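TICKET #2291
ISSUE: user wants both folds in one file
ATTACHMENT 1:
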Amino acid sequence: MGQMNKWERLEASIQQQPTDRVPWALWRHFYHRETNAGDLARVMLDWQTRNDFDLLKVNPRAQYHAEVWGGRYRYSGQPDVKPATESLAVKSVDDWQRIDVRPPSTPALDEQLKALSEIRKGLRGTVPFVETVFCPINIAGYLIGDTKVLKQHLSDYPELIHQALRAITGTFVAFVHEILNAGASGIFFATGPWATYDTLTDAEYEAFGRPYDLQVLAAAADARVNVLHVCRKNNMLRRLQDYPVHILNWASNEEGNPSLGEIADSVRDRAVAGGLSDAALTADTEMPILREAAEAADQARNRGLMLTGNCSIPINSSQATIDAVHRWLLNA
């Protein structure tokens, strides 16, 4: 088989067709370069140039989702220090009524669109790239800043939460359309701590998650590459694998989660993405990561594998280890 370009390799993987090699991608935070469009675009392009991924997952600050409704955060300017909360958008039950539909011109969203436009120009169509968008209930969690409190509100004030989720969904449906207009190849749709049995039951996610998720994903239906990322251990991926996306990404080596092979056996026309643990990415030697890469390839057996981390990789991940994975892929 001749050498494929990145688009050919990724789309063949999605169709579970043979590829010249396994496609791959890793993503991480650069906390000191996530607070304006120019810095975010440049650091993402630098990350892509350094590592030559087959898909660039744009990794903005998570807080942009909550800044839409007035959440305020303190950014340290340090590469290894996460943002600190200064003021939450929702401080009391009554504040849920203030969550209304906001336009894509809202500063926090417009900033992302400007960054995506710059990334599109820098990549010149050669690399698929996706923008990170949280699912509506995950955004609601950021608005109130406490998973346990929101879970209690789901039980005690369901109509208020549904009202807020409708507004969040309307906001991000419009934003997703603009993401595609800015040139992104699709979205990276992340469920955070919500699509896991450690947080919700199936019935609760069916009520407060799925209906809103599907509306946002419908807005991205014309995209060429949409990724579903189901976070954490004990996750609900088996219930969500029917979502209309091209790539399924999850922590396949964490407790209670399905393996890459299990999901590869049960889906068609989509890729499975994962295999590389945080522990291996931060190890002192290359052996753990190379072992995991080989195990992932063996599990998927060329049925649409994309090699990735479990989530955003640790900021102290070893560049030498990342380079070792790249060499392994080129030579496998």
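ATTACHMENT 2:
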Amino acid sequence: MVPGVRRARFIGAANALTVTLAATLCCGCLHRHHHPQQVRNYPAPAPGANQPAVPIVQGEQGLASWYGHPYHGRPTSSGEIYNMYAMTAAHRTLPFGTRVRVHDLDNGQAVEVRINDRGPFVQGRIIDLSYSAAKSMGMLGAGIARVQLEILNPAVAGTPGIFAVQVGAFRERANADRLRDRIAERFQPVIIQSFDRGDGLYHRVRVGQESTEDAARELGRQLQEAGLATDVFVVRLN
């Protein structure tokens, strides 16, 4: 069983910071890919009595976006090389290999994609389509579309997972380090994952290793309540 996040007792009053949290959380909504040397391998836990299958959310609705250059030819979160002409997509919590039919709720178009990446890290968006997938749905011009997701291989989608809360992404490593250190006074573990956005390195701050999405969402709520995060995104690590 993958242990849940170990919460440290709060020791003393936190030292006052000269830089506000709002300033450090700039760039927190970026969906980009891990730098190959920084990717940490999180193997999927084996199903068992203490590791139930993840409940499948059929019919998830929200906004779809798409991405192409400069990510074409760069590693995705799964380790695959991103091909903007393949029918793939990024999702924050569905296991890699999940096949999803994406239904455009406005124009009636649909496309089938395979999840091989993580994102998008923008509030309200639920899936990031490849260039070709977005083109087939006629959404290149608008950039986003209202969609509903249909899971086509629920056995894969229900695979047990490890979940964390992403609280920010920064161009300056020092900002990521500062936020990590502040959060680590109360919550553990806190990791920084670096990724190449195409125009330079960025650094994501992620908190926790939870065995369920619900536990990760509760952790996100606690982080916000403690004033340690504004936008939070539950993301699957494996």
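RESOLUTION: both attachments delivered.
EXTRA DETAIL ON ATTACHMENT 2: Helices lie at 21-24, 131-136, 154-157, 173-184, 213-225.
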